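During data preparation, we tokenized the protein backbone, and the record follows.
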Amino acid sequence: MALVFYHENNPGDHYEFTHLRLNDVYDFMDGKVSYLHMNFKATNAATGSEVTFFAELALEGDVFDKHGGYCTTTCSIVDDDCVGGQKEEWYNKYGSVANGYDEHSCYVCAKKIKHPTGKSCKGGHWIKDYWVDDSSVE
């Protein structure tokens, strides 16, 4: 689903999904929308090189309705220079009574989840504790 979105927006590139670590998927509510943030690997069909992608999916409509379900809101290639999630940092930066909105950072994900630069993500920008359990194992 996410690679289809990427290919539609980048017609010159073609990647094939390689793998995703399920414990590196962050599922959270922001407002009344359920989001998923994740990194996954895909291989360039022309060169064979493997790259890391970031994808955000949003639940739209009723999952029991044939027109409802998750849709991709963004999918892009990221690298080690991209900023990771700020989940561990929000308390250190803002204290326990944080209130605000930062359109350039995600406060749901751990640092290991690399995000694209800019404002491409829709969820996770409120500076607060989203109460997402980080049970991933390195």
The two ends are 26 Å apart (CA to CA). Residues 50 and 71 are 24 Å apart (CA to CA). The mean pLDDT is 82. The chain has two helices and five strands.
